[in-house]
Design brief:
Length: 126
């Protein structure tokens, strides 16, 4: 299993329609947004210290299920614990493919909460 590097995660996130990256909170937290709404956060200092993680939005029921199944998935660090998970990647417990599924799920969760007008902007981007 090839571990997910920050470059791989960054590339995958930026492949999602209308995704941007920025540092809205500080110079440490890399944030990915779709149409201005956050779907992924990566603390760069943790990556540099050898403790990589990513925080992603998640359906509350699914969040509880995967937290029980994977020791490396915890309630979102500095986020709403009901709707966000932090995935600690150092253990390689989560495959890159599954991580991509979780990122896509987060992206989709954010889209579901957008207005029809905002979702239509994505359709026009195709």
């Amino acid at each position: 299993m090839i571990p997910a590097t920050l470059d791989i995660i960054r590339s995958f996130c930026l492949q999602q329609l209308k995704t941007t990256e920025s540092f809205p909170f500080d110079q440490d937290t890399l944030v990915f947004k779709v149409l201005g709404k956050i779907f992924a956060l990566c603390p760069l200092s943790k990556w540099e210290a050898g403790a990589p993680s990513i925080t992603l939005k998640c359906d509350p029921t699914y969040a509880l299920q995967i937290r029980e199944q994977y020791h490396c998935i915890k309630p979102g660090f500095h986020a709403n614990k009901k709707h966000w998970n932090t995935i600690y990647l150092k253990t390689n417990e989560v495959s890159t493919e599954f991580l991509f599924e979780l990122i896509s799920h987060s992206y989709d969760m954010v889209l579901q909460n957008m207005s029809k007008k905002q979702r239509d902007q994505l359709k026009h981007a195709l």
